[in-house]
Amino acid sequence: MTPEDWPKARGARSNPTPRFDRLGAEAVDDGWALAEEERPDPRTTIHVERARNILTRNDSPDIPFDRSVNPYRGCGHGCVYCFARPSHAYLDLSPGLDFETKLSVKPDAPALLEAALRKPGYKPAPIAFGTNTDPYQPIERDWKIMRGCLEVLAAFAHPVMITTKGFLVTRDLDILGPMAAEGLAAVAVSVTTLDVRLHAKLEPRASSPARRLEAIRRLSAEGVPTMVMAAPMIPRLNDHELEDILAAARDAGATAAGFTLLRLPYEVKDLFAEWLDAHFPERAAHVLSLLTQQRGGKLNDPRFGKRMSGEGEHARLLAQRFHVALRRLGLENGRVALDSSRFTPPPRVGDQLRLF
Questions:
Q1: DSSP string, 69-137
Q2: DSSP state, residue 187
Q3: Which of 25, 28, 138, 225 has its CA 20 to 30 A from that of 181?
Q4: Model pLDDT, residue 266
Q5: Is the pTM of this model over 0.85?
């Protein structure tokens, strides 16, 4: 498919068949013009999902939380490197263009979240948002599911940590500000690059680098503890920007920072390689070679303790640069601690009153 055939402002360059699909189809260029019905459809379609549960648990030692909520499936930001793309295969949809255009929304998420928090024996701990797909992706403007979840958490005095690329997070400062004042909220803003040209190719529908720094500025000004995630770091594409990203975020008000190395699980490997060939053919082989050096000779290493940071000399130097920059800039390493002791389910009409 030629560049002019492909939809504008989309990250993936193809729409591969889901790996669980029993019937596969592959387009073949036979020299004839591409039929209109064979062209990838760039329009966003939305499916309403009626979920039974909304709280997801995990026991991974690589991440600082044990529970999360994802109001959406798929993501309109279109980041080509997104490690969540393979999850679309479980919906019999492609991790390629489908992941960016065929989105699922969970309008019952706030009600399901409240029900989960009211269960007898529930023990509070920070709930993470933005762990799979971005809760502040463009469709949140209309659906406001993330805002509804925040309203529930505020009513319960329940701690929340958010990771996002979306400037839209600043819309909810009226909730996040008061929660942060009680030690109940923190936000991590992911800044992948400061180069607007690279951003337009890597993350075509995500907020611009300047808007993300402005989000950090506004969050910090309202007292919301804000960290920057320099993620993902991609060798020979954006890893040279690590110190500049941290410095710009610190100047905007970030007090903590983290970074991750690019992860390429399942279908993301081929999608990313295809994207490299389209946008950076002169350095594609070098980028992939450096990635395999940091992943034990493969493009992906799923092992705990290795999947986020990699191994080898290049990974070691990247981590060393990160820690030196933290000390120089006065940034904390990692997320802000939140307070779970304030958790109190609000009374409902008809609830039995407590004796003591």
A1: E-SEES-TT--TT-TTGGGGGGGT--TTHHHHHEEEE-TTHHHHHHHHHTSTT----PEEESSSS-TTS
A2: E
A3: 138
A4: 93
A5: yes
